[in-house]
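Table S2 (text version). Query chain:
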Amino acid sequence: MLSKYKSNMIAPILVAFVYLLLLLSRIIDITGVTGENEYVGVIVLQIFIFLLPAVIYSRLRGEGYTERLRLRFLSGQQVIVTLLGAMTLICGSLLLSIIFADGMTEEGFSLYNSFVASHDGSAETVIFVTVAYGIVPAICEEFLFRSILSAEYEEYGIFSAFIMSTLLFGMIHFDFGQLVIYFFAGAVLFSVFYATRSVLGSIIVHFLYNLYGLFGQGFASEVYSTTGSTELFLLLLFGAFLLFAALFCGEVARLYRRYSRQNISSAYLPKRKKGDGAMEALLAPGALVCYLIFILAALLF
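Corresponding structure-token output:
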């Protein structure tokens, strides 16, 4: 059982193990795993890389641990917060990709810079792509980086939970250039996770973001071409981001007022440990191993 170990010691070890499995997956022939259907191969690999270690870890953490993972359904107002969070994430990530990465590209959607999604437009292929590159990664990644990591780091303060789950999530792509984009994505997902008090909220946002990456990038490129000006497109995109971000924050505020009226306590957070929780979490040996793996992978691959 792992219940006797400090969370900031063993949680990053789980993440480091996942990082290594991700790097190992780059040398695996997907079609060799499940025959000619690469989509099934991608699904199987994600389950073995993310979900299986996370489930085993949560079981080893002892009885009652799953109650801390916020495996709950959403109410109507929480769904609204979730949808607005998704639009904020899509607009903000596109804006950041133009500023910090390669701008508007026609490249397809890929997972972890390893598995590139492709489809011929048939209904069967679209379903396979949606499941393999949209639904499964959203479930696997959110269960690990939001449910488990937030539960582990909350005892060091809410900021520690935010910074560690967001930073470690951002590093799974092993790309310095896109770290800012994925850190922002993690921040939005973390906000939805806590506002809705359910990992289902962040899963839905993550799925919708993946869905945009799979099928919506062409539309964004068309809008960009129609404007005929990078500056105008950035202005429109920034305006859309501010609009959705304001609506998102407003709905979150309304949601918390509802929690207050219903006398729903915020005591789900454990008592914070003394000391600088964020620095203790950031500089824990396991976390340093994660940083080292990220740096070496980003430089070498």
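Notes on Table S2: Residues 96 and 240 are 13 Å apart (CA to CA). The chain has one domain: 7-300.
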